[in-house]
Amino acid sequence: MSVYTSEPPLYELSSTGKIGANLPTLDVPTAPLPTHLLREDELAGFPELSETEVIRHFTRISQRNVCIDTVMYPLGSCTMKYNPKLHEEAARLPGFAAAHPLQDQSLSQGALALMYQLQQYLGEISGFDAVSLQPAAGAQGEFAGILVFRAYHLSRGDVERTEVLVPDAAHGTNPATAAMSGFKVIEVKSDARGNVDLDDLQSKLSPRTVGMMLTNPNTLGLFEEQIVEVSRLVHAAGGLMYGDGANFNAILGIAKPGQVGFDFMHYNLHKTFTTPHGGGGPGSGAVGCTAALAPFLPGPIVRQNATDGTYELFMPEQSIGRLKTFHGNFGMLVRAWTYIRTLGEQGLREVSETAVLNANYIRTQLQDLYPAAVDRICMHEAVLRGQIAGAQGIRTLDIAKRLIDFGIHPPTVYFPLIVPEALMIEPTETESKANMDRFIAVMRQIAREAIETPDVLHNAPTNAPVRRLDEVRAARKPILRYNAEKFAELRRGE
Amino acid sequence: MEYNLPADLQYVETDEWLRMEGDEAVVGITDYAQSALGDIVFLELPEVGDTFKAGQPYGVIESVKASSDLYAPVDCEVLAVNSSLIDNQEPINSDPYGEGWMLRIKITGGTDKLLDVAAYTKSVQERDH
Amino acid sequence: MLAAIGIASVADLFVDVPADLRFPPLDLPPAMSELELQRELRRLSGQNANATTHSIFLGAGVYNHFVPAAVDQILRRGEYYTAYTPYQPEVSQGTLQAVFEYQSMIADLTGMDVVNASHYDGGTALAEAAIMALNVTRKRNRLVVARGLHPQYRAVLRTYMQSLNLEIVGDDDPTMSLDDLVNLVDEHTAALFVQSPDFLGKLHDLRGIADKVHAKGALLVVHFDPIGLALFQTPGAVGADIATGEGQPLGIGLNYGGPYLGIFAARQKDVHKIAGRIVGATRDMNGELAYTLTLRAREQDIRRERATSNICTNQGLMALAATVYMSLMGRQGLRRVAELCYHRAHYAATQIAQLPGYTVDLTQPFFKEFVVQCPRPVAAINATLRTHGIIGGYDLAQDEPQLGPAMLLAVTEMNSKADIDQLVAVLREG
Asked: From the CA of A475, how many Å to the nearest CA of chain B?
């Protein structure tokens, strides 16, 4: 299997004097260099390779990845749907890819028009009055939201609010965001049907409540059955509702967060609107909110000049400020815009219908062997448990690793934390029935193996570029940059 | 699961143990705690002379897949720390009551939160299912 | 599938949504075919000036540097851009090895020990440096910030810090020197933040200040230009505790503001306080060399409300772009690019300094950007330049009004002598 051949570190391919770029010669007189400010080592030891060597190296190591373009990738909570190739072409058009963010706005009307339209589309899809495209990722959108909540309360002289409610099933970013904003995190329990426990919620609401951060559909893949009541209770306590948009792919054209009681949400454009994940980013965490919160949004935001119809950037009057330089991860905005314009109203609704249909198909075909966290119709992802009846000493991790042998990327595992041995499966709408049937057949075979030949699972994967790793060594003796001696030790097995 | 919980030690709910020696004590984490965390890969300990109230975090412990604060079992002042654990955390897993000790403290306040082995064993059983 | 699920219609899947709010209409433009969209996208794109239509002398934190074709060829591989965060190392060795090589090269470039991968941009990397400095130094409530930091970085820093009870000082007075800033560092200060080359392009000699800052128990944070580091003194060499940079010059296009790359490097002693993802080398069960995300217990998904940063999605693909770029350039290429920038910028500065009414301070060392004091408002000058297909420098009227009419001009390896001569000619004609 040639694609699995190991590839040495770049540093070991280097030889002195090589260069992989063709640069112009100097066409101006040289100016004296400030000798006292020069780096002394003249960058000695930095790799030196030819273009051929660089391309081969990065192409070879790429073949040690799996990705959506090669395999089913049902990674729950991450919405690993197919990334249309048109998006890549669109973002690379020179008027987008080679435009300077600080060039005069009169020279950027196409880019600003696109941003303005995307703001309108996202607001319409989610039922919000205002949108800012500034945040670079979902986590930054969350941070924006909590800072906006704080600014809103303070603007009303409401200075005693210090607690953010977060469900026990929440993504780790939610409590981390609240803590980063200087607030205390109060955990709210889930009930037996996987909803927010209303009694527990009520007992934790108080005049100290800043608001609640809630993912809906939630991290169990379930639509909060009492969402309107949850919102009513939080609002009655003077709090605000933050919507984590990680699971927005389930409800495009099905429900609008702004209509079920949320005041603010972030959109993960890299999930729902399939700007690719890029091996962990870049993403975009655009945010939307009600008119009451709009003056506090991070900026700049694009507006249309009423007199001449041109587009311009502005900062909302009581803005929490800018969260990053310039105006958002623009390249991601182009892709999301393209996706929405490809699909339109009907197409977007079909995305969610199909995503939810697919997840329920997988759930119903597997939950006899892998018990569902909650036995209910799910939304775009099915949360099952890797607790196979009759199997001894098998953990969800073993099931995940065995899937790799069959050329399927494992689902999200051990999340949400409240589900023991969780397996969170999100097929998305872009997986065919034939692929899902194969996934189901493989999962059923793994369940049999778990009972009959458990060592096959314990040893998995065997059909992958590497076997399971020594993660304890990685953490106890960290090697975080190339070092010839340390690599020699590693290879000697020390 | 069966855990080694020596009868001559005192415990707290947050899974630290104390070996009382007059108004001083030695502190570490229990066999249950090290087992639940898995292979320990990082430890952060306080400085000698630092003081803590009971229940305050005195350090941080990390395994490959978990992170936890370490909590002072009683009001105390730190007299000594087992700094050898900073570079080699393995004894916390292999010998949590011996080589894996973390602090020697002077007890400066109430000991009412301390549990005996029976009470702590019950607490572990309730959580370990 | 409906029968297998046990429902009659797809609509039955959504009964949990309140009936009166279910299936709302979406007022969106009608769907378009791919070829119609290509046309519409080209129309919008065509309305924007860009580096292929204009001669660009605008920088101010984002620079028109050369990106070899090979960079985008690698970025376009589905194996990289359609993968997720490498949580399953057995099938993510490509991403993991590339990130490890990114960490290694950035560590070499900066002279620092450890590097994460990565932050959203230079501004957020700097804000995360502040968070880390507050955590390392503990119980301190003051940040000293040089005016030379990009004004947008200072704005991002203030956004990030707004809910924490602390003071940010040092950047309100344009006359303040490096020594004055060091004197502001006291026993309540978590860190001193400096940038070299600074926002106005000047290079500073930062040797000696780390000791003074450390004497107060504070950290030194140095923000750098990664291309400049091929030639000039590194944050590591001057004793910085944290080094941050905007990675955009390393093979990432202008992109109308993003995505870019936040570079973040620190010292080994603080590795457990670093936010974000870190890749380490280890072995697999067969003893083969392999890479994995490590020291994971620092991150938000494990630490939750005890985490010091909420960062999850990073700029992985942009870190890959920087890695491929640095590999192609190598030691010689990076130094050549830096030299081209330096000499062409100095040529441009010298030529402009000779124009009547224009002033350039040639006595202070600078890298690729410099301030030009102008005889009339910059907006008017730039309007004239636009009619000649030139995008002029950044107008400093808002950020540094005390300079009078002044523009910040950036010259890179992309601006040939002919481009510079044309700029100078248009300025001369007025």
From this structure: 6
